[in-house]
Each structure stands twice: as structure tokens, then as C-alpha cells.
């Protein structure tokens, strides 16, 4: 493990054995490597070409029970494992989504779409669209006249031959959504098994919670926008793309923060949250502190077994950081940090 990047302690404390010196790889590149739209789809397709053999999958203790033969997936055995050890079941399911065994891969992808989204819905209150209609006084908001709500003042003005006051008329106007989210998923290095499954559950939960007004970005050396802010994509579609990615490359945390800022700039929500699912151990791209500080609100969910750098960054910025024990705890962790 490389030297931690972030100073420990609070903003005014002494930062022993830590440094804000940019990591290897230099500072900001002249052209940001942020892939969106067709570029992002191509990057996901390319990542999906890397597959996992049955021999590698057999490192999971229950793999032979879940898939006793090539091309087979026993849903009953998987359901039992999910009840007994949900984190192991989800980790295995995430890895089987990249199986070299094509039939097993397709069966796993179909199963993941249901299981991951169902788990993500726990404790998440969904919203739909980018806002909702509300009725407000015409003196305070602009919009179309709400005839039902304004009928009384209109009839009175005609009867008395007087002008209708703006404060007596009601208009229909769109109320912007309360909260916008950008989920940053660290796909560098050890992005497989439980970490991959946790990322998929988090992405599904974010999309289910916020509807269109959210974005999901997977980052390593580059940043791949799996779902853009205000883009209409279902939780199942986002999960499918995310599970095609595998741990790969170095970690450009500063680039991820800038990508989040770009996405959230498209939202009109009053509260804009960047949620980073990462150990925050940057290995290229320069110092991320400045870009992280520029975000309206940043929250970190770090793997429970690897929180040192994430907590150090959170302490320096004065933000929240919570440990994530496994994919089955994602919904609860999100509900806690997003209060």
C-alpha cells in the first residue's frame, strides 16, 4: 500500500506522517478523461470483455453448489445462500455476472437485476421525475393559471367590476426536487466480489430514491458516467452496466470529484450530495482536496476493512465518513448518511 495522501487530524491540528503532496501521475491533465453517452457505453462494453473463469469463481466456497455444471445456476441454492449469508451471495452473484461461461453469465445478469434492485429498495423512498407540480400565489411564482384554485377571485372580480389581485390568483409551477445525488464508485484495484456488489446495490438505491435527478460515475484513471444527471435510466439498467466493470487501474480521485461537480451542475435541486464509495487512496491525478472542497456536500462510504485514508480525508474536510460492512448493509448505510 502506498503512503496515505491526506493529513490526519482536524483542520487546525498537526498532520503527522501525512502529506498533501500530489501522488505520482502529476496534476490535472489538459483534457479531462470523462466518458459520457456513447463513449461511456463503449467503455462499459470494452470492460465487459474481461471475464472470470469457473476456476476463479470456485474460490467462492458455495460456487459449486450454486453452479454445479457449466451453464447452470440453481436459483433455489442461491436463495438459501442469500438467506444464510447475504454478503457472500451478493459477492458471488456480482462475480458471476462477469463469468466466462456465457450461459451462467446471462442467468446471473437476469437474477442480479431482481435481487440487487429489491435489496436497494429497502428503506429508500422513491421520487419520480425531476420535480412535481405545486400550486402557488401568482404574486410569488410564474406559471399557468390554476383555474380551479382561482375561480373564486375571478368570479368576485367580475361581480364587483374590479381587477383581480395577483396574490388572489393561483398558478401551477414546478417545484424543483429536494435532493440531487451523484454516486462515485471507485472501480480501481480491488473492485470485485463484495465491493462490486455493494456498488451495484448503492447505484440501484440512488436511482430508485432520486429518479432522474441523480448520476452514477465509475472511476479509476478515467471516469465513466454510467448514468448522467437528468438521464432516464432504470435501476436495472444501471446495475447491469456497473456489474460489467471489474477492478482495474489506478485511482484518480480528483478527476472523480470534478466529474461529480459537472453532473450536479445540471440539477436545480436545493440539496446536492456527492456520495463517494471509495477507500479514497488516490494514486494519480494530483491532490483531490481542492476539488472535493468545491462540492456542495460530500459524504464518503468506505470499505469497513479499509477506512484509514477515507477517514483522514473526511477529517480534513470536516465531512461525514461511514464504514460499509458489506453489500447487504448498503441501504441502511445510505439511509444514515443521507439524513
Structure overview:
Residues 1-71 are annotated as: Disordered. Residues 29-39, 47-62 have a biased composition (Basic and acidic residues). Pfam families: VWA_2. Residues 182-279 form the VWFA domain. Among the domains are: 131-176, no CATH class; 177-337, 3-Layer(aba) Sandwich (Rossmann fold), CATH 3.40.50.410. A hairpin with a 3-residue loop joins strand 6 (214-219) and strand 7. It has helices spanning 38-47, 54-57, 63-66, 75-84, 86-96, 102-120, 147-160, 193-210, 235-242, 253-264, 289-293, 308-317, 330-337, and strands at residues 34-35, 131-137, 144-145, 170-176, 179-186, 214-219, 223-227, 271-277, 298-303, 320-324. It is an alpha/beta fold. Helices cover 39% and strands 16% of the residues. The protein has a seven-stranded mixed β-sheet with strand order 1-7-6-5-8-9-10, with helices on both faces. Strands 2-4-3 form a three-stranded antiparallel β-sheet. Helix 4 packs across helix 5. It starts with 33 loop residues before the first strand and ends with a helix. The relative contact order is 0.16. The chain is built from 13 helices and ten strands.
Sum up the structure in keywords:
three-stranded antiparallel β-sheet, 10 strands, Rossmann fold, single chain, 339 residues, alpha/beta, disordered N terminus, elongated
Summing up helix and strand content along with how strands pair, one would put the structural category as alpha/beta
* Sheet with most strands: 7 strands, mixed
Supply the number of helical segments: 13
Fold-level CATH name of the domain at 177-337: Rossmann fold
Tell me the CATH superfamily of the domain at 177-337.
Answer: von Willebrand factor, type A domain
The helical percent reads 25-40%
The backbone outline, from C-alpha atoms, is elongated
Beta-strand content bin: 15-25%
